Amino acid sequence: MTVETRDFKTIFEKIDFYENHPLSEYTYTKVGGNAEVLFLPKCIEELRIIRKYATEHEIPMTVLGNASNLIIRDGGIKGFVVLLEKMNDITVNDKKVTAFAGAKLIEASEIAREVSLSGLEFASGIPGSIGGAIYMNAGAYGGEIADVFEDCQVMLKDGRLEVWTKEMMHFGYRSSALQAGGVICVSATLALTYGDIIEISQKMEELDEKRRLRQPLEYPSCGSVFKRPEGYFTGKLIQDTGLQGRIIGGAQVSTKHAGFIVNIGGASACDYEQLIALIIAEVQAKFGVTLQPEVRIIGEKISCDELQADS
Ligand SMILES: Cc1cc2nc3c(=O)[nH]c(=O)nc-3n(C[C@H](O)[C@H](O)[C@H](O)COP(=O)(O)OP(=O)(O)OC[C@H]3O[C@@H](n4cnc5c(N)ncnc54)[C@H](O)[C@@H]3O)c2cc1C
Known about the structure:
alpha+beta; 3 domains; 5-stranded antiparallel beta sheet; binds flavin-adenine dinucleotide
């Protein structure tokens, strides 16, 4: 334990937490080791108590949204892990949707549709949380979070809240100022426009259908593993190396979309990392293109040999 054993039940009273808890229960890939301490705060005040305690006791703290863009290594995550899924309220005020960071982007796009607000159609199939989507500047089919972002509330290390405007977010392709670390996105306001509910619904259905046809949604995965290199399509590059279908352990380069790595049963993070390294090396060797992972790989590495010995 890096977190010295303390009486957390007394310290954190009504806050939900688990010690030594498997994160594979939460990740979209279904891989990942344990969190030393996993917290599920229900409100800003609970998050502030956890945040301040971690800072004052120099305990590392990792925030998870919906864990759909993560490979958590098999050695798990040391220190505090905070899952924001219980901070999930969404409210609509005229053309603005304000959501807590743990709210699901898909739900926000659904609520927007119900009140004829247009702008979040692109997001209807992205399985992230609001916080994770802002952190990643998630996007699809020509739209991205930056297009609708108005501002967000972030929590600093000392528990204070600040409002960050769009200018402060420095959005880029799958990037935002949140990636510099140090702050937690607590809530955000998205500015939409009124549209025609039938057109909004049609657009969302059309995009959902495209996903169902092209993506291996029947298997656990973390979505597109790599960022799209300028001038190329990642899936095509990988296909042309001949790696589509390649299996390492329980991880496979999807036979439906080569940009995805799916867990076909019992995969470890180690399997994922080996397959990612193989793809990067082959694409580099064959086409001179350097693929950059879009997926965030975090946590403690344990060697694949150790992992096999344990199982
Ligand atoms: C089947 C599938 C399809 C996908 N399709 C797309 C797509 O079309 N477009 C796209 O862009 N992505 C796609 N993704 C990837 C993923 O859904 C997005 O990147 C999403 O925005 C990640 O959000 P999350 O809440 O799951 O973040 P997580 O995976 O939980 O976290 C990602 C990063 O954000 C950080 N983070 C999360 N919440 C906060 C917060 N509140 N404050 C500070 N940091 C935070 C985490 O620490 C981590 O570093 C897909 C994934 C899957 C599995």
